[in-house]
Design brief:
The protein contains four helices and six strands. It has helices spanning about 5-20, 25-30, 50-60, 130-140; strands at about 30-40, 50, 70-80, 80-90, 105-115, 120-130.
């Protein structure tokens, strides 16, 4: 991935990995280890993952809304870090703890700061509006 900005790498990562679910492409984007420094509500919060561990996380995370789409609102790059404001939407087609699949359309927004080692993504710090997802799924 030479001559490509970290913002471009991250935009491609969000599309290929999180929107399209291309598990086979994970090693193209990640450093040898990936640290989830802060991500409240995420079962992997605080963990250091190998590339294989990240693949497992991807498959499990996308199962609740396999049609999910991440949309970049804005990116800012500074000192080996890219901050991205994003929106997300999908259809609740897979069970999550305590909430069976509802078939409802859901959406949320968030802000994630991704860290890079060279041109590889090595971790993130994130806040996401998971409360609104819970509310969307539990309201009649």
């Amino acid at each position: 991935m030479t001559n490509t900005s970290n913002k471009e790498i991250l935009a491609n990562f969000l599309k290929d990995i999180w929107t399209d679910g291309r598990v086979e492409c994970v090693s193209k984007y990640l450093a040898d280890t990936y640290t989830i420094k802060h991500d409240p509500g995420d079962p992997w919060d605080g963990k250091v993952l190998t590339v294989e561990g990240f693949k497992e996380r991807l498959v499990q995370s996308r199962a609740m809304a396999p049609d999910q789409v991440f949309t970049v609102v804005k990116m800012i790059e500074e000192h080996g870090c890219v901050a991205v404001a994003w929106t997300w939407h999908g259809t609740h087609l897979g069970d999550i703890p305590g909430i069976p699949a509802t078939g409802k359309k859901i959406k949320m927004s968030g802000l994630t700061m991704y860290e890079f080692e060279g041109s590889r993504i090595s971790g993130h710090w994130q806040v996401a509006d998971r409360l609104s997802v819970f509310q969307q799924l539990t309201q009649l």
